[in-house]
Write a structure and sequence with these properties.
The structure is a single chain. With 171 residues, the protein is an alpha+beta fold. The protein folds into 2 domains: 3-129, 2-Layer Sandwich (Alpha-Beta Plaits); 130-171. It is 60% helix and 16% strand. It contains 6 helices and 5 strands; from the N terminus they run αβαβαβαββαα. It has helices at residues 3-21, 35-47, 57-66, 91-103, 120-127, 132-170, and strands spanning 24-29, 50-53, 80-85, 107-113, 116-119. Strands 2-3-1-4-5 form a 5-stranded antiparallel sheet. The chain is elongated.
Amino acid sequence: MSANLEAKKLIVEEIKEKISKSKSIAFVDYRGLNVELDTKIRKTFKEQGGEYKVYKNRLVLRALNELGIAVEENQLEGTNAVVFSYKDEVSAPKVLVKSIEDDKVLKLKFGIVDGKVVSKEEIEKLSKLPSKEVLIAQLLSMLNAPARNLVSVLSAPTRGLVVALDQIAQK
């Protein structure tokens, strides 16, 4: 086999590994992106537990097909970059949608969540969800509310008695 073919096989394996460990993936058209903005975007994704990478469309398509993810060839036409979200499902889409709104260069095409191809609208909805930490905090607050309310109700008579005794003592 030629060295070029071996190199391509290694890249396909790399793509498959990144897809497998990603919580969500987004595909964007990066046409018009300059080096300065590209560097800024890559850095931001890395800080948020993601990765922004450009691969040849054919290699990405081959990796997706080998993983059993059905993507049509026309979805990967043009200049494409792949955004991998390793930390959670929403962190990289949040950064991506914010970058699209701020810089107006990248164009979201579609995404993959849990091995299923999703539309760009679904990736945008995903980006509007709170982070995992915020959702856990909200859940814990909701689970703690009944106990907090019970303590308040049970302590009300005692609190009332203390207030009444205080009023009598002041007279």
